[in-house]
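Schema walk-through. Below, the input block comes first and the output block second. Nothing else is stored per chain. Lengths vary across the set, and this one has 587 residues.
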Amino acid sequence: MFQKVLIANRGEIAIRVARTLKEMGIRSVAVYSEIDRDAPHVREADEAFLIGPAVPAESYLNVLKIIDTAKEAGAEAIHPGYGFLAENADFARACAEAGVVFIGPPAEAIEAMGSKTRAREIMAEAGVPIVPGATEAAADVEAARKQAEEAGYPVACKAAGGGGGKGFRVALTPDDLEEAFEGSAREGEKFFSDSRVYVERYLEDPRHVEVQVLADGHGNVIHLGERDCSVQRRHQKVIEEAPGPHVDAEMRERIGKIATDAAAAVGYRGAGTVEGMQVGEEYFFLEMNTRVQVEHCVTEMVSGIDIVREQILVAAGEPLTVAQEDVQLRGWAIECRINAEAAHKKFAPAPGAITTYREPAGPGVRVDSGVEAGSEVTPMYDPMVAKLIVWDVDRDHATRRMLRALDEYEIGGLTTLIPFHKALLATEQWVGGETCRDLMEDRDWLKSTAPEAVAAPDGADEEKGEQVARDYKVEVSGKLFDVKVIGEAIADAAAPAAGGKKPPKRERKGGAAGGASSESLPSPLQGTVLKVAVEQGATVAEGDLVCVIEAMKMENEIVAHRAGKITSLNVTEGAAVSSGDVLAVIE
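--- output ---
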């Protein structure tokens, strides 16, 4: 068994992996970017190393730096978590070449399933049902039109190397295809360095049902039942549950075989998820995620199996600890993703500082988080703050428990999806086990989920008085150490909060949103301009696309707030914008 494992990730998944490593008696090594020096995942590990600036390409995506750090720390293996390098075949190969074990599937399996077109081809050859559409990328828009005609409208343009909702655009009619194709290609290039796009039939209101699989190097491939992840925004999940509300025992056995056959077809090893679309009694293969999923927690809650532990054991050459006949699913689990987003503003990213923080507790409640009071949710990374998971005997009781836990959750100073979750779980659609797509697309309903204004607690920004003993983190040659300094307190200096830093005071920048007129179109968020769809002097109608801003790994379409002529256009592609900056003036 490994003695030391490096965790090539950040946030809640890094903490979640570190906890299992500790239970297994394995030392953990954290890595962090400059902006993450004070992040909780750094303290959770036994050792921590700086790997670069905040920009992911120079830190969490820096393959050479991460492998060099693993060797410097004496780690025999690397756990990639999810996101970043988790599904990067080149990273898996680089680990092998460096003599470091990659805790994940073989590079060949990542490659086979990483290309959605190749995966569809493999599944079709293996007799696994796939959504009607192409099994190869379209060379250009005209080729995409031919694929769309064969599949039948509406269609989905999908990035061949995509996943997690990235590079997914819908064309309801032929007139929509070019824009969908270009948007999918752009996101594919940005997030996966792969601009290839293919077209398949768009199923308008399917259930998104996925199956958790585990496979070892001894020929064992099992499944742990299904998860229903149908509640999504922009094709990205926000609520997941296990088991599926519309999956019976017969379907569970059938889709479980589809999933294990899919894993066996590519020589899979480790933990993976076969995603599919359920339409009535039909089930179509969608894609395979060759990593641990964000929503793996709900499966752990109903199966009692630590999926991360199984990953580590398999990577160390051990067989799975359970056989298929040993898997028993009990009760119901629900997960709500607590994202820093404003649902009432079309799920706009809402980065900021957390002033106060209190997690819910009690029977059947689990919180996987990567933040605390004083943490800063930055636009540099994913908007997910935490995952709130509950378990109870059935769906109705689990829903009641989740609503209670959401009521207990306190995150001060930050806009999150908590009000949205509370509103959605109280609807008839959720109670009836619907996909809730009508609610997710209903602007008026989403506006009703706006959080209530809450006054800051008295003394929230006041100094906390002097302390004689203080804990500091000292970085020496890129490695982090905990140091306690005992001496006379420095006058007028605030003591750090227990276990963290004092929440920073934030000031508004003058001249941005405050002085915006009704003709001005302010940016609702901080980010990078990916596309400018208009020119100065152009006439636009209310709702016309003005530009696309990328923030927190999401593309956000900024539309005209009124009809008129663009008399001033203040954005260019590739430029950075801050929240409140005037993007354009429409008179």
